[in-house]
Amino acid sequence: MGLLTKEVDVIEIIASILGLAIGIIVGYFIRKNISETKIGEAKALANDIIDKANKDSETIKKEKLLEAKEEGKIKYIGITSHSLETIEKSIEDEKFSTIQFPYNIIEDQADEVFKKANKKDIGIIVMKPLAGGAIDDAKLAIKYILSKDYIDVVIPGMESIEQVRENVSVLQDTNITKDDELKIQEIRNIMGKRFCRRCEYCLPCPLKINIPQNFLLEGYYARYNLKDWAKERYKSLEVKASACVECGLCETKCPYELPIREMLKEVSSKLG
């Protein structure tokens, strides 16, 4: 996992807790001149807190993390989620130092929430800057995000030194040009017609199909090349895309006018 930030003098050590609804990030923010021994101790302490918390419910996990913060064992607590509603609630809660949420040229529904978090001095971490691999122009995708003065960090995945160099070069100039704006609009015009933003306005489905979840798994199958993993997850769904009877109710509620019925057929074809 890579990290690009406008503040490059801090190393962030993040340990993630995976839950059913959200993953909670416990972070130590450590300056570069701290020894490897101290960094190792910080990691060990974070892992110990996580191991104990993972045995508890989500509510108890949060309580224990807050206790650990009050005791000085951890400095910051962040939250990551694919649910905009969860992120909105966490901002109102004011117990988290950072929020992490998908955001990119296509998925920009978190704009107002990010601005609200920024006003409350809550750090904003952007994941999925390339929309899960759907956006080919990495430099433009990262530039678009870092051009927003209310966003602090973007974490693109990088698999080679060349990708690191390419992504870091964006920091030299984050101003969006007229040419950039045309390219951004072109990407939206092409991808926006068949890309699920997981806003969940299409729900509830009369047959209880979790439409965004089905599309998410198809994305893992097609763009991340996690074919076996995606198929196994698809099998575990209580109601699958194949259950769609094409009533079309979902399409009447989708603000992006996606051809949901057709897209569900594609999910069923690939994962069924």
How many angstroms does the end-to-end distance come to? 30 Å
Helix content: 40-55%
**Average of per-residue pLDDT values:** 82
Poorly predicted segments: 6-34
Walk me through what this model shows.
- With 272 residues, the chain is α/β, with parallel strands linked by helices.
- Helices cover 44% and strands 14% of the residues.
- The longest helix is centred in the first third of the chain and has 18 residues, at 36-53.
- The model is unreliable at 6-34 (pLDDT under 50).
Which tags fit this structure?
globular, 272 residues, single chain, 44% helix
Task: Give a brief rundown of this model.
This protein has eleven helices and seven strands. The chain is α/β, with parallel strands linked by helices. It is globular and about 55 Å long.
Topology:
Layout (H helix, E strand, L loop, with lengths): L3 E2 L4 E9 L4 E9 L4 H18 L4 H13 L5 E5 L3 H10 L4 E5 L8 H9 L3 E5 L10 H9 L6 E2 L6 H8 L9 H14 L19 H12 L4 H10 L12 H5 L6 H12 L1
Parallel strand pairs: 4-5, 5-6, 6-7
Antiparallel strand pairs: 1-7, 2-3, 3-4
Helix pairs in contact: 8-9, 8-11
